[in-house]
Inverse folding.
């Protein structure tokens, strides 16, 4: 039987997925989790150790099954002649990406032979980059018919594409051919101007900081000149215009190490201009009067923007997959191959983003056996959701490693730190004791889907924490530690069908406190990716002020 | 069809790359004509949309002359889809 391995091979954010012969995505994981190195620049997605680990989590049988290897680019940057000089990007970084990509194209396959998953050379099946993004979005979408807008940093020809989705089959309407006209590069450039690292992917910090600044007319006017639009297709301004903009915004730029708030107005103005650019693209999609709009590509991680468009454009629904950036393309590439081979639509997901590694049960058993001298261990069994909710309501900060890991950048309750959002000091406590983040950055709320309208204005579903919504005015004081400076929250909506344990926990918390909202942030050590192994989780417990971690249904506490 | 495609190529290079029509010499390679790679890629996009075809972005760099490129595009337009 034929299995499909999808590889995200951009050169940054590598990831691997495995699709079984029936078209089910049975595994998906970013390499950064496995290696515990953020973004894993230049690392092959088919790293032998990770490949072996991934197959070990499936029922693949080497003596019976074959593997198709599918990648997320049809051509390399160098082969397609895409401009490697970009006025918004440093030459070094673009060259590095192109070199990484060329290496990856040459060397995919070696690990499959090493592990006896293939005999002889591996024939790669290469799929167009934005088609991969779209296939992933369609997989996670509830809508069979939609318009899918890919807003990315790069693409085979340009950074934006639009597809029509009919019966879960995709057909491209158009793609941008102006390689430099990239909303992703615009935001990266803004990130650097705000004094953050684009290499580490700190665009999040700009988005969070934007709420703390003022949108200034002079900055908006300057930044707006970076891109123009021709029939909704973005066009990058000439180099001399970009050079002028550089001079015009210089007074607002923040150097590395300078106070963060110095960049707040630039962040706010940049986010505003990003929204105007993205609106121009969405307006183009609206001409097709879609039943649903799917947003994907790296820019679909801009939750502040995402949260506004359903209401503003009067769309029936806006859906964003849990993994809209390049890591998610590992799924798209494999599903496109499956779809071609079976002459079938893109198969739908059951909605679960929990496609990554499960905690190592042997390691948990070993830890529990040897933990007695240093830790208090309680087996909570099926009552773990209620018991954790009780501890949260008493003020504890608890890490959770339970079930399979999320695929995508967000912690959605399986690799999370949970806390009580009613306490005004909770944000500062978590920052001081655990996360060490900049104080202005917000923490996210989890809310039951059926109650989201009672807590947020213009509420709509956000199962993968991809939309930032405005809290209702009268609710903000009840959950101060998850209300951002501008009165918003990047919400995760949960329901019993898709997140039974987390839903039970939030409802139990509501039963105890009257507030159906729990604070949720990622379980990681500062500067590291979200935890991967049981050992990583224990390391977080031991090196921070976390009160406890839940390993599956074992509650582990430091002995006081 | 070939003439229509060539006409579109000339128009695009004149409007987008600010070239003089007389400088668009089909018997030469794109680098000999002085077409920048970014403009060459943009032209592929114009042809893709104008003629409703799928153009491999590497195609123009694989053709020895602009004339060969026009013929390749013509073949894509005529090919059954």
């Amino acid at each position: 039987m034929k299995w499909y391995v999808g590889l995200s091979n951009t050169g940054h954010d590598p990831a691997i997925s495995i699709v079984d012969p029936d078209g089910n995505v049975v595994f998906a994981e970013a390499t950064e989790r496995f290696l515990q190195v953020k973004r894993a620049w230049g690392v092959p997605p088919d790293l032998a150790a990770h490949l072996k680990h991934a197959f070990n989590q499936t029922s693949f049988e080497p003596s019976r099954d074959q593997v198709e290897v599918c990648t997320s680019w049809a051509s390399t940057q160098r082969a397609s002649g895409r401009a490697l000089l970009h006025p918004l990007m440093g030459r070094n970084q673009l060259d590095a990406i192109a070199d990484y990509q060329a290496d990856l194209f040459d060397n995919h396959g070696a690990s499959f032979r090493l592990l006896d998953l293939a005999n002889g050379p591996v024939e790669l099946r290469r799929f167009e980059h934005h088609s991969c993004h779209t296939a992933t979005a369609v997989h996670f979408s509830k809508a069979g018919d939609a318009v899918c807008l890919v807003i990315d940093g790069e693409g085979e020809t340009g950074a934006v594409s639009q597809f029509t989705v009919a019966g879960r089959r995709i057909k491209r309407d158009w793609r941008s051919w102006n390689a430099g006209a990239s909303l992703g590069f615009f935001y990266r450039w803004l990130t650097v101007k705000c004094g953050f690292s684009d290499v580490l992917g700190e665009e999040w910090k700009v988005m969070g900081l934007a709420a703390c600044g003022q949108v200034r007319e002079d900055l908006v006017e300057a930044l707006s000149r970076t891109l123009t639009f021709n029939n909704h297709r973005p066009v990058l301004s000439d180099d001399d215009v970009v050079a002028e903009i550089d001079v015009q915004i210089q007074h607002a730029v923040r150097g590395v190490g300078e106070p963060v708030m110095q960049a707040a107005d630039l962040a706010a103005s940049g986010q505003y201009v990003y929204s105007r650019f993205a609106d121009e693209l969405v307006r183009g999609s609206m001409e097709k009067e879609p039943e649903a709009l799917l947003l994907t590509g790296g820019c679909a991680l801009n939750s502040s923007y995402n949260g506004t468009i359903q209401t503003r454009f009067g769309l029936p629904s806006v859906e964003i997959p849990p993994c809209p950036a390049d890591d998610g393309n590992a799924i798209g590439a494999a599903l496109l191959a499956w779809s071609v081979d079976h002459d079938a639509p893109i198969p739908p997901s059951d909605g679960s983003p929990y496609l990554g590694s499960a905690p190592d049960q042997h390691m948990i058993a070993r830890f529990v056996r040897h933990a007695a001298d240093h830790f208090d261990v309680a087996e909570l069994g099926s009552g773990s959701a209620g018991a954790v909710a009780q501890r949260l309501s008493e003020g504890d900060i608890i890490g959770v490693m339970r079930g399979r890991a999320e695929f995508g950048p967000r912690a959605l309750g399986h690799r999370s730190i949970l806390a009580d959002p009613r306490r005004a000091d909770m944000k500062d406590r978590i920052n001081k004791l655990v996360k060490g983040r900049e104080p202005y950055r917000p923490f996210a709320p989890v809310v039951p889907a059926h109650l989201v309208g009672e807590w947020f204005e213009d509420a709509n579903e956000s199962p993968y924490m991809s939309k930032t919504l405005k809290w209702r005015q009268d609710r903000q004081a009840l959950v101060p530690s998850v209300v951002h400076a501008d009165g918003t929250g990047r919400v995760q909506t949960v329901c019993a069908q898709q997140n039974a344990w987390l839903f039970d926990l939030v409802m139990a918390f509501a039963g105890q406190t009257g507030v159906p909202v729990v604070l949720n942030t990622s379980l990681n050590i500062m500067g590291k990716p979200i935890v991967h192994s049981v050992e990583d989780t224990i390391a977080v417990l031991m090196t921070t002020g976390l009160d406890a971690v839940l390993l599956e249904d074992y509650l582990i506490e430091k002995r006081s | 069809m070939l003439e229509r495609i060539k006409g579109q190529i000339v128009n695009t290079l004149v409007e987008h790359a600010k070239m003089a029509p007389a400088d668009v010499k089909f018997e030469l390679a794109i680098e000999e004509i002085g077409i920048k790679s970014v403009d060459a890629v943009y032209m592929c996009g114009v042809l893709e949309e104008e003629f409703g075809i799928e153009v491999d972005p590497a195609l123009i760099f694989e053709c020895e002359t602009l004339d060969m490129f026009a013929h390749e595009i013509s073949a894509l337009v005529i090919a059954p889809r």
Q: What stands out?
A: The interface with chain A takes residues 37-38, 40-42, 44-46, 48-49, 56-58, 60-61 of chain B (CB under 8 Å). Chain B has a mean pLDDT of 89.
